[in-house]
Amino acid sequence: MSGEVTKGLEVTRERLDRWRREQGGKGRWIPEELWKEAVDAAQSNGIESTARALRLNVDRLRERMSRSEARGAVRSEPETVFVEMGALCNWRSVMECLGRDGQRLRIEITGPGPVDAAGVCRAFFGGGQ
Hints:
Layout: H1 3-23, H2 32-45, H3 47-54, H4 58-71, E1 92-98, E2 104-110, H5 117-125
Antiparallel strand pairs: 1-2
């Protein structure tokens, strides 16, 4: 490994360790920004050695690597669009959303009127993932 790659991995490890100390670590969802750094490090250093150095689950890191390769890069923010459900809301509509980390949102709408479904999802899932 070159010094630059090793330094990059060390910086990512320090950021991840700081996040764990501040946020409680185990059982908490790692932010997308840190996952992206871990994926970048794994591309340079290998999945197993990166997972070991960063104390990450190797299977989850491998899955993130696969998703990154499939779409070109891990986006730090999900792409959202406006979805007006006006015509659907004259009776009863149900919309279910699943976040990247397993969060679920179920919206039941009754009565007429447009609903900004993407805005509701964006507010629920927020930028904190």
